[in-house]
Every structure is written in C-alpha cells, then in structure tokens.
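Service request form, structural biology core

Requester: graduate student, group of Dr. S.
Request type: structure prediction, single chain
Budget code: on file
Notes: please return the result as structure tokens.

Sequence provided:
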Amino acid sequence: MRRRMSLRDLFPMAWLSALALNAGLLLLALSAAHVYAAATRPDVYGYDATPSALSATRRAVEDLARALPPPDADRLTYWNRLVAAELDSGDFSAARGALVASRSMLPARDAARLEAKLPAEPDDAAIAAAAISFLEPDVRVRFDGASLAPAQGSVMIVGAAADLEQRARALVSGQTDTLDVSLLALTLAMGEDADSDFAKGASTLLAARRAGALSPQLAAHYQALAARALPEAALRAAAADAARADGGDGAQGALVEAIRRAVDPRGYAALRTDVAALADILGAASPTGAVRLLALARSTDDVARLRLVAVSSGELGVMVAKRGPQGALIRTAAGTWRLTAKDWLALAGVALAVVICLTATVTGVGQAIRTATAARRRENLGVDGEDLDAVYQIGPEGPRS
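Core staff response, request fulfilled:
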C-alpha cells in the first residue's frame, strides 16, 4: 500500500528554518541587551595613552599644524614669522612648539632636507634642534638667546603649613574660597610632597583658576569632589579655630591634624584620581602651556582628551592650541574602546544571530516559493488534496522517472 505524502514530508526544512529563526532571534535579543549595557557604561570609551592612540593623536595634531599657513603664503616665511611672534610674546614654549611643527609646516623641499637630518624615530628635542638651521639669521639669534634664559616659572602653589594657616584665615574673612584652601589642606594632611602627582595637578588647577582659564563647569566639578573629600563644614570649623589661635608651629600642626581627621578616604581617592591626571599635562608641557591647554576644557572628558594630546604632542600641542582653530585641538584625541571578554563575546553573539536569522529567512522564503510552485503544478494538473502520488508517481520503490 502506498503512503500518502504531505507537504510536511516534502518540505521538512521549513520547520527547521522556523526553529533556527526563533533561536537566532533569542540569541540576538540576549546579546544585544549585553551590548547595549556595555555601550552605556561611562568608561566603555576612553582616552588612554596607548601606543596606537598616541600615534593617531600626534598625526592629527601635526595635520592641524600643517594647515596653519594660508594657502597662498610662503610656508618658510610664515613659519619663521610664527617663531618670531612667539618669541615677541615671551612664550618660548610655543616658539619651541613651532620648531617641532617644522616637519609639517615647512615647504616640501625644506621638509625633505629636515627629514634627512633626523634619526629614524626622532623625539621632539631632535626635531627642534634640526629645525633651527631653517630659521632666518635674526630669528635664530633671538631663539638661541631665549633658550639660554631662565626657565619659565613654576606653577607650584601648594606649599607649607604656614601657607595653609594664612589661607585658612583668608577663608574665614571671605578673601578666598574653599577649593583653594581644600587642595592645599589635603596636600598637607594626606602627606603629599611637592613632587607628587596630586600636588602638581592641584597647582596646575589653581594656576588655571587664578588666571581665569578654568571653565565654570570644571571649577564646579572639582569643587564638588573637594567637598566630598573634605566636608566644607569641617574645613571652615578648622579654619575658624586656626584664625582664633595665636599662630606658630603648634597651631599649624593642630590645623593639619584637624583636617586629616575630617578627610573622607573614598572622597579623597576620587579627587586624587582626577587632580593627579593634570600632572601629566604639566609634565608634557610648560607650566604656562599646561594652563593654556586646561583653558580649552569644559568637562572631565575634555581634560582626558587634552591629557592625551599633551602626552603625544607636548609643546607642539601648546602651539596649535594657541594658533589653531578654536576647539580643533580637543578633537584630535584618538579614543579607544574598553571592551571586556564578555563584551567581545556579546558582539560575536550579535553577529552569529544575524547570520542565523538571515540564513533561516532566506531558507524559509525558498521553501515558500517551492511550496507555491508545487501548489500551482497541482492546480494545473487538476489534483485535489495533499496526495501528490499521482503527480510525482511515488510508489513503494520511490519516485519514478
């Protein structure tokens, strides 16, 4: 007896396609949920000083320097006048940055001659030293003279306990604010020496603020962090006690000790992380250059970008910040994705789910087309029902030719 064949027997792949499609959709939903959670993490994208990020940022800063001369300008003359202008303004750091930019700013022929003088991987000092020979005689004499002058002054503002006592009295009398006193108080109370990253960062921050270069947004951010590390009420109480005291080493020591007891360790750790990052900007640029770079920042994200710019480009970045388009320097920072192994696995899951869904969809559409074709043949041959034996001549021994 012959078996009646149904469309399910002829097209079992349709059911497998439906199963695969549902499995793919489930995998896509789970993987996409993890990817979304990863993408919304605050630290998923950052500006770490990785070799690739440093290289990409440096190239972008050099591109900005290359675009500084107007299209119709004589590039060698423009470059010499730029160095002279920086020397006239007393900004030797920016003048040295212009020398570092020589590979990008000089005409092609002079740039090739400069490259021939340089080692395979020159540092900024080697580039500046080789570029001096391309300066006009009078500019070169002035540059050599400026290079022999004393270095630009330090921005170190945080000091000794006597300074803290003086500022505490100023706080009580309303002549200063809590951020100024808090940074000095925390430096002394937590045992930070003058060479620590926190002390350098705090001095850079205060120098930028006193120069009017610190944006209100950043000032509010650091003020809030300082208040978490050292509550304002405790600071003012300690300052008031110091103002009533007669002064001297004993009073200064009591002031430092009172502040040390009031410090919140977690709040201080958060403040220290943010402030210490400014030390990298100071270390890569001059004191005035660090303040100039910090003046461009409107958020902590901008600070992270400028830190990467400073580490990658140093005084070249300072010169571009001074002479380049407004806000362009910040955009040169090349960020990197901070993805964990689970994040990569979730991304792979999304890709796999998409492949499964597409394959299942294409297979299902193909089966639908074949089903419609079989139905059309059945209709044309006048066959009723699902029994296709008469059409395909299926017997116990199988289909006949």
